[in-house]
Batch of 2 targets.
Target 1
Amino acid sequence: MTSVTSDVYGCLPGGFTVKRFCLQSESVKVEIISFGCIITCLETKDRHGNFSDIVLGFDYLEGYTNKHPYFGAVIGRVANRIAKGRFTVDSKDYFLPINNGPNSIHGGLKGFDKVLWTPEVVENGVQLSYTSDDGEEGYPGELKVLVTYTLVGNELVVNYKAWTSKATPVNLTNHSYFNLAGQGSENIYDHEISIDADHYLPVDDTMIPTGDINPVEGTYFDLRKPVILGSQIAKLQESGFDHNFCLKESKRQQTCARVWHNPSGRVLSVRTTQPGVQLYTANFLDGSLKGKGGAKYGKHSAFCLETQAWPDAVNKPQFPDIVLHCGEQYDQTTCYQFSVE
Ligand code: BGC
């Protein structure tokens, strides 16, 4: 049985109320706010039955309205990077705000993480809707978006649906930062990870995929068998993982990643319908943000598993297509399962 309760989380300028929804089962408690569809708290049990909050974030709304690295938020209209903020759809060129080096990232200056969604309680969860105007952040077409979070037992399921009035790229994900030792723990070096991907996307020095789809075989990106994150990160030339792993093509949910934290026993397993997952090991966190309970989040203090379409797909015909057309439905689901071992 999942209980769903709500309260007022805060107030935005202009008097708009931000609501918080608490979904609670026997083994998991998750809190979601209507600003940015953000997961602000996610408590799961360790092997002794003790709950800890395993996601990074802030104690107050201001943390989320200020600039921050997308803690817990839903990202859109297009998650990840679009090279030079440019693309062409239906023979028309579009120009997006440049907000990451020479590129556009995570929906632009005011992406879906920075807007107020309209929430509605549903069975075992909450459904949040948002209509993105034609031209918003440079993207074509009015896009109606519906994000549904449901909790059943130890599984948190996130479903994303969208419909557009004109052809537009769409790529929606959730950007939660996990630390299975509990948020505020120093790093994730003692976590063991596996990702079921035979290929990954190498990137250029602005983090845009080169266009190659490289086999993981024989590289440090081969995570098909579990590896310890600390020692694997140490082997990389890069400062950590920040790469898209290409998942096997399937319309059905497939297991894409598993993370095990031996000291607590916590396990996170992720299943998704998406064609890719970005493993990001919080390489850009530097301890300057004041997080929950005064925590200072340093480099590698969390990992993200952003299930998504492939970065810059709108400019790479060899990547799975991300253009949604008028009359079509975007429909993607990611399931996070929490257990102990
Ligand atoms: C990107 C990182 C970026 C982070 C926060 C991730 O999706 O891959 O490069 O730093 O989001 O913006």
Note: The chain has one domain: 3-340.
Target 2
Amino acid sequence: MAGEAASALGLSMVVLAEHPDDAACAVASEVVIGTPRKLDDLRALAERCQVITFDHEQVNLDYVAQLSREGAIVRPGADALHMAVDKGHMRSVLVEAGLPVPAHVVIENGPASFDALRAFGAEHGWPMVVKTTQGGYDGKGVWQLGEASEAADLLEALAQAGPLLLEELVPLDAELAVMVARRPNGERVTWPAVETAQVGGVCREVLVPGRLDPSVTEAATALGGQVADLAGAVGVMAVELFWSKGQLLVNEVATRPHNSGHWTIEGAVTSQFENHLRAVLDLPLGLTVPQYPHVASVNVFGGPAGHPLESLLPRALAFDGAHVHLYGKETRPGRKLGHVTVCGAEAETVRARAWGAALALGSPHPPGLDLPDGVTT
Ligand code: ADP
């Protein structure tokens, strides 16, 4: 999706990919085969580029810092990336700035960890949430512990996972996400906060503006901007928030284009991908105003039947206004394969059409999430 935005601006995009058939290679002007886990591969990429940026945060911060020292322009830089790479660091930066986060503690997973976990549970109650501080995404790296007796197995399984983040289980009234685009000089624009629905730690739908009171959405939008400034983000940054008992809490950040911002491709004057490129290239940022009263974006996952998506596409495209984005990945049960966005005048209509098209693509109905009226699996 960044490649499409690059092409419209007449930019050429060089992709560092592990395999020539990785989805991004199809839209890249040039491909460097390699891995971000090897400094020499990153150097080979740097030789071909004016600016290096990222579409995930599985990044070695030492290598990023080294590339900068060698003269490469890397945006965001290692400091901003650190917030996204390490949840423990992110929490401590936010706490130091006085921003609201769930009650938490970071523990080393060692001989004293069971006692630390029991003490945290005694103070903040059970169940609690346990997260790896690094390497998690889409709910991988997040567990709920019902009681202390369940802890030993989890701690053993995570013996090599590094420090752990223990958190109170926040009673969620809603989840929101804010996308911010920020230039190297700190100039920034923010898209309005959106409501997200997560099932099993994975984002299923994004509703714009969502169902929350506008005062909450506005406060969330402002908080997102504060977090991006604090991180010193360059490019786009996603800030994921909890709405709980009348309070906003910062849950998670990502310093890259994000699933919760895919709606901006058709739904906003400027997409997150275009503004990411503008920001990392230090170009004027585009307007973030929504183009429609309502936008719904629903993620498409591989279903148990594993039908090839091409055969299902005609049914999905029959839904009025359905913008189908398929990421060119092979279908596997549970794998995120794409998304569908629908824009329009009525919240229920756009949501129903987006879900209709996603289900037509074989995406399963996630348990616990209410489908719009009239939509059947
Ligand atoms: P990831 O980095 O894998 O996306 P997150 O920390 O964002 O992990 O957690 C994924 C989802 O798990 C959240 O969107 C939320 O639905 C749920 N979750 C995470 N932490 C908590 C918490 N402390 N209380 C309640 N739910 C949580």
Note: The chain has twelve helices and 15 strands.
